[in-house]
Design goal:
- The chain has 41 helices and 27 strands.
- It has 1171 residues and is of the alpha/beta class.
- The protein is elongated, with a radius of gyration of 36 Å.
- It is found in: Cell membrane; Membrane.
- Its main location: membrane.
- It is an enzyme of class 7 (translocase).
- This is Calcium-transporting ATPase.
Length: 1171
């Protein structure tokens, strides 16, 4: 009660309540303006009520900020509670194979206590007493498996939360506090803050616009409308969180944050409906009902009964699940292995049961006894255990470990991974399309050359203020100072003689540095022309390639300043300031001359050439200078074509952006690793060519292409203006530089390379981008890299990895980690498949020949634990080395299991099976003190040295083969780098010690009998023999094997059954955009047997929950943060809300009547659901 009274008193102090501000943000356009004016006295009145200075912002005092957070809320959405350890353990227990095993173990345990009189003399007393142990041991083994799975999931979920927190702190927004512009973490925003929005920003809160310059927002995330919405303080001042600033800039006062913002309200509704859906899911039958609930929101599984396909957007979203090349290949492989394992497991049970029944009931003509049940149960246990070994649940665990380990390490290498599968995809990259500015260069712009008043000032000889004509120098200083973003600033270095500090757009900073070099300061000019007094600003974008600012000089007189790419600015000029500031005519001939004399030499020096121009517009009859343009009536400021023509050229400035010192070496590493680096830039072709040569992308004498965007389009398009893939295929292999490129050109190039089938293994393309318009190319690429420093929020949203240092050399580290992940998975595959083949074969042959499996159920579970959990951890934590860059990339269609791996798997399986079969049939004759453990009846459960030797030899050979599996490319030294991986060493030694203890002291629990020194020596020799056998295998060239022996080759078709668990009903917010997930799409095409098998593999889903969480984190991105909400997700959310409301209204009006007998509404979108 006291808290509410306090909140009310503070609300009175601020002059408006939380609910009033929420209500204000629900209004749009004229209605919002009217309410703002009527209730608050305009934006100035609102600022007064919120105790905010519209120019200087609020105080940065922590007490004041905390008070605002208590009254108006924090700018965050409380994250969903993480699952407890016991919940994870319960979910791990849902695995169908474990359930069967548990049931069989319990039955076995129960039957062990039943002693029929007829069997009293059949076994000795010690065996009868130990009869219960096997059932208990299996129960304990299952519990261990469940605990290990749950512990792994729980620890990885903690890591995931930590990564979430790390990414959230990376997102900052500019605000003004105490009159100073500062960047703060978006979660620190409070109501009343004056925030500054610029081109490319993702708005982190709701607000009311104070001042703007040509500000246009993409509100499609909330409204679904694709057109940009123009915002201004006198037209439509309402800004909403989750929307993107696509053009312009402005200042706004924050009015709603967190769950009280419009995005927060939608996210809260999503969470509420998701919870409601989960509650209803328990009562619904197979999720078949897809009817509106009480709130008019459609819930259910989203499958359309009338067989209609999903809308294109939803199909596209659903298809995103199959982006990862490796996961698609592993999924396909897992299904194949699982099929074989199921068949062998079923055959093993059938053979054991059939032999027992035939011998007892047909040959011996005995009657059925209750004790026979224990035999049937034991046979089922053996069969299910074979299935447990065959099911490749270690695959997703290996992926989880390899990827999470890599993500953690990559953060130290300046790679902030947003989409987890981007790690391994990067290992396959064959091409990188890189930006120039900031990625290959330092992004520290400095004006080093200038052409002013017919004088060409070369590097080191820039003019002084007194050297220039009075009019010219005033135009240069005023033009640069006002025709730049006011958030672009340059400060003298705090270190004596150090470079100036640059904040904001680096090109503008380079020009502002020129003003300071002339002995003046841009701030003095900006004080004369505050940002809010600027008459109109045409902000820079990729289509304009320039920026213009209009100043109102006095009554009816306007001055327009322009800056941009030199060729574009000059093409708009009709006059130029010549010697002494004289105005001279300027036509096409002069443009060509200036291009040849000035622009090309500057560009050849690797400089970015910027043109400066101006135009004075005066009322009719008031013209005083020959270059002034007269106008009558009202000027149409929206007609840019007219506004920008007829200008007067002031100067051409050459800005230097030096190549990063480490980039040439990094590019050389890429080229040596078989990765083609291409530069895509908006700069002049000569500048681009010069920088590319400096980097090593272009090499003298090489047959490479450097094209401008226009020529590129002319070469690749047909008569209809459409891209011709065949024409593109003729160009892109030789293309190294694409200059004066539009964002659409980058997208076309990336899509063309990905879709091309002209290369052997298909191309895997990585792209870097920093601008808003780079988003389509970043999304289309296999791996999109956004710049962490210079990148816009929109680009970061579309990316897979954020380069926190904007450095190309960090991409090379991502390649190393990616290849390391791919190789780690391949190492584990080689190891696991060898164990699979051997264990399944020995169990099957044992059932066939000796009526029993030489490997008991508990022993196979121990092998399964080694094979899956421990080996995953050991092989997935290898550190990458430079050696990884010495081989070519795999590409998109390269075999997952190479011929070398097939040779190793087959060779070691043959060796192990030979040893095990020899031991099975001849061990008593070969090894002293070893009695034959084979029981003619197949009924004995007493541990024997014979079968213990088989078990021990198998485990030791498997352990040694784990060392062999560290190398998958035929390397002979399998110990290289072994001691640099302490995790591998600790796990290997721990496993070995555990095996010794199990053999010597396991007894009935593990069906083992203690072995003597000779028996141990024989097992050790068998194990060490694997090392020598590995060397023999390496002498056999892989090339002699037919190519058909490589698996996972070719283009992988999209599948809904990925090892990420995504074939399950989506439960994360980002999946909402998917609506009916691809599992729903493909069900009609899958055979029932395959579906049953896939649904049985729930352990794959359980152990991959972490990977799923990581992947959803990047798409949804973080539930606790508004700032990274993707447009797709919010668009889908808003659309569902809208449709839900319509349905509810129709229901109330009686126009829609829903019953179990009626068909669903025909509108496709009625199947949308909240997840």
């Amino acid at each position: 009660m006291t808290g509410s009274i306090y909140a009310m008193s503070v609300s009175d102090e601020y002059g408006c309540t939380l609910s009033e501000l929420r209500g204000l943000m629900e209004l749009r356009g004229a209605e919002a303006l009217e309410t703002l004016e009527r209730n608050y006295g305009g934006v100035e009145g609102l600022c007064q009520r919120l105790k905010t200075d519209p120019v200087n912002g609020i105080s940065n005092d922590q007490k004041e900020l905390e008070k605002r957070r208590r009254v108006f809320g924090k700018n965050e959405i409380p994250p969903a509670a993480s699952k407890s350890f016991f919940r994870l353990a319960w979910e791990a227990l849902q695995d169908i194979t474990l359930v069967i095993l548990l049931g069989a173990a319990i039955i076995s345990l129960g039957l062990s206590f039943y002693k029929p009189p007829s069997s009293a003399a059949s076994h000795d007393s010690s065996e009868q007493e130990a009869g219960w142990i096997e059932g208990a041991a299996i129960l304990i083994a299952v519990i261990v498996v469940v605990m290990v799975t749950a512990l792994n999931d729980w620890s990885k979920e903690k890591q995931f939360r930590g990564l979430q927190a790390k990414i959230e702190t990376e997102h900052k927004f500019s605000v003004i506090r105490d009159g100073q512009p500062i960047d703060i973490i978006v979660n620190d925003l409070v109501v009343g803050d004056v925030a500054r929005v610029k081109y490319g920003d993702l708005l982190p809160s709701d607000g009311i616009l104070i001042q703007s310059n040509d500000l246009k927002l993409d509100e499609s995330s909330l409204t679904g409308e694709s057109d940009l919405i123009k915002k201004s303080s006198d037209h439509d001042p309402v800004l909403l969180s989750g929307t993107h600033a696509m053009e312009g800039s402005g200042r706004f006062i924050v009015t709603a944050v967190g769950v009280n913002s419009q995005t927060g309200i939608i996210m809260s509704l999503l969470g509420a409906v998701k919870q409601e859906k989960e509650e209803k899911k328990e009562t619904s039958k197979d999720g078949e009902q897809n009817l509106p609930n009480g709130n008019g929101m459609a819930v259910g599984n989203g499958v359309q009964k009338d067989g209609k396909s999903m809308p294109p957007q939803e199909e596209e979203d659903a298809a995103k699940a199959s982006k990862s090349v490796l996961q698609a290949k592993l999924s396909s492989l897992a299904i194949q292995i699982g099929y074989i394992g199921s068949i062998v497991a079923g055959a093993t049970v059938l053979i054991l049961v059939a032999r027992f029944c035939i011998e007892k009931y047909v040959v011996n003509k005995q009657q059925f006894e209750a004790a026979d049940l224990s035999h049937f149960v034991n046979h089922i246990i053996i069969g299910v255990t074979v299935l447990v070994i065959a099911v490749p649940e270690g695959l997703p665990l290996a992926i989880t470990l390899a990827l999470t380990y890599s993500v953690k390490k990559m953060m130290k290498d300046n790679n902030l991974v947003r989409h987890l599968d981007a790690c391994e995809t990067m290992g396959n990259a064959t091409a990188i399309c890189s930006d120039k500015t900031g990625t290959l260069t330092t992004n520290r712009m400095t004006a080093v050359q200038a052409f002013i008043n017919e004088e060409f000032y070369k590097t080191g000889h820039l003019p002084k203020y007194g050297d220039l004509d009075a009019l010219t120098r005033d135009l240069i200083i005023e033009g640069i100072s006002t025709n730049s973003g006011y958030n672009s600033q340059v400060f003298d270095s705090k270190i004596q003689g150090g470079p100036r500090e640059q904040i904001g757009n680096k090109t503008e900073c380079g020009l502002l540095g020129l003003v300071m070099d002339l002995g003046k300061h841009y701030d003095d000019i900006r004080k004369l022309h505050p940002e809010e007094t600027l008459f109109k600003v045409y902000t820079f974008n990729s289509s304009r390639k320039s920026m213009m600012t209009v100043l109102q000089m006095d009554a009816g007189r306007y001055r327009i300043y322009a800056k941009g790419a030199s060729e574009i600015i000059l093409s708009r000029c009709s006059s130029v300031l010549g010697r002494g500031g004289a105005i001279e005519s300027f036509g096409e001939r002069q443009v060509a001359d200036l291009t040849q004399r000035v622009i090309e030499p500057m560009a050849s020096d690797g400089l970015r050439t910027i043109g400066l121009a101006y135009k004075d517009m005066v009322p009719q009859g008031e013209k005083t200078r020959e270059n002034e343009l007269e106008y009558s009536g009202e000027i149409d400021w929206e007609n840019e074509e007219v506004i920008r023509m007829g200008m007067t050229a002031i100067a051409i400035i050459g800005i230097q952006d030096p190549v990063r010192t480490e980039v040439p070496a990094a590019i050389e590493k890429c080229q040596r690793a078989g990765i083609t680096v291409r530069m895509v830039t908006g700069d002049n072709i000569n500048t681009a060519r010069s920088i590319a040569t400096s980097c090593g992308i272009l090499k003298p004498g090489a047959d490479f292409l450097a094209l401008e965007g226009k020529e590129f389009n002319a070469r690749i398009r047909n008569e209809d203006g459409k891209v011709d893939q065949a024409k593109l295929d003729a160009i892109w292999p030789r293309l190294r530089v694409l200059a004066r490129a539009q964002p659409s050109d980058k997208y076309v190039l990336v899509k063309g390379i990905i879709d091309s089938k002209s290369t052997k293994n298909r191309e895997v393309v990585a792209v870097t981008g920093d601008g808003t318009n780079d988003a389509p190319a970043l999304k289309k690429a296999d791996v999109g890299f956004a710049m962490g420093i210079a990148g816009t929020d929109v680009a970061k949203e579309a990316s897979d990895i954020i380069l926190t240092d904007d450095n190309f050399s960090s991409i090379v580290k991502a390649v190393m980690w990616g290849r390391n992940v791919y190789d780690s998975i391949a190492k584990f595959l080689q190891f696991q498949l060898t164990v699979n083949v051997v264990a399944v074969t020995i169990a099957f042959c044992g059932a066939l020949f000796i009526k029993d499996s030489p490997l008991k159920a508990v022993q196979m579970l121990w092998v399964n634990l080694i094979m899956d959990t421990l080996a995953s951890l050991a092989l997935a934590t290898e550190m990458p080395t430079e050696d990884l860059l010495e081989r070519k990339p795999y590409g998109r269609t390269k075999s997952l299991i190479s011929r070398t791996m097939v040779k190793n798997i087959t060779g070691h399986a043959v060796y192990q099976l030979t040893i095990l079969f020899v031991l099975m049939f001849f061990a008593p004759a070969i090894i002293p003190n070893t009695k034959d453990g084979r029981d003619p009846t197949g009924m004995s459960t007493k541990p024997t040295e014979h079968f213990t030797i088989i078990f021990n030899a198998f485990v030791l050979m498997t352990l040694v083969n784990e060392i062999n599996s560290r190398k998958i490319h035929g390397e002979r030294n399998v110990f290289k780098g072994l001691f640099t991986n302490p995790i591998f060493c600790v796990i290997w030694i721990t496993t070995l010690i555990s095996q010794v203890l199990i053999v010597q002291f396991g007894g009935h629990w593990f069906s083992t009998a203690p072995l003597d020194y000779i028996q141990w020596g024989f097992c050790i020799v068998c194990g060490i023999g694997s090392l020598f056998w590995g060397q023999v295998i390496n002498t056999i060239p892989s090339s002699i094997l037919p190519k058909s022996l490589s698996f996972g080759r070719g283009e992988v078709q999209p599948t809904s059954i990925l090892l990420t668990g995504d074939y399950d009903t989506p439960t994360n917010i980002s999946s909402a955009a998917g609506l009916a997930k691809s599992s729903s799409i493909d069900q009609g095409n899958k055979r029932p047997g395959q579906l049953l098998w896939l649904l049985g593999l729930t352990r794959l889903q359980t152990q991959m929950r972490v990977v799923k969480a990581f992947q959803s984190s990047a798409e949804d991105s973080h539930p606790s943060s508004l700032t990274t909400s993707t447009a797709d997700r919010l668009r889908a959310s808003y659309r569902r809300l809208k449709i839900a409301k319509e349905l509810e209204q129709q229901k109330r009006a009686g126009s829609v009547r829903v019953s179990s007998s009626t068909k669903e509404p025909t509108k496709d979108t009625t199947t949308m659901k909240f997840v």
